[in-house]
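Shift notes (night). Ran Rhodanese-related sulfurtransferase while the centrifuge was going.
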Amino acid sequence: MRAFAFFLLMFSWLKPNAQTNSRAYKVMLEGMYKHTVPTVSCTDLKKELKNVVLLDTRAKNEYDVSHLPEARWVGYDEFNSKSVADLPKNTPIVVYCTVGVRSERVGEKLKAAGFQNVRNLYGSIFEWVNQGNTVVDNQGKPTQKVHAYSRTWGIWLNKGEKVYE
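Came back to this:
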């Protein structure tokens, strides 16, 4: 019995939690994240949306398909300190991308630039949509379309209409 309890404790990280509802997605994310930027769950972000600046770190064509409401596009390859020069260093910032890897790298750059309150949306836009949250198009209208980056990555998007252009 003790061995079984130890097994459950050792592999409890595989269980879905408030951050993602998919064990497989969580395992994939945990293998890719460096954990250099604190994460925030979709549930917690929804409670704070009015008090944070959302930065979309995807390519412009991905952002143009859809993004989180009120998100500001800063890009990944295009990102530099000028992208956030208007923000005070204590601004609560949440970065996101498709699954959270590119946004984690931009979060590292923000922290290196002196930003003190930077978090990465765990599972990023895929998890946001998978949990039934709204994304908007460039006119601010709700849409079901989500840029899925590639057919390989698109397997992690379970809701919405996948766009690959």
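The chain has one domain: 22-163. The longest strand covers residues 53-56.
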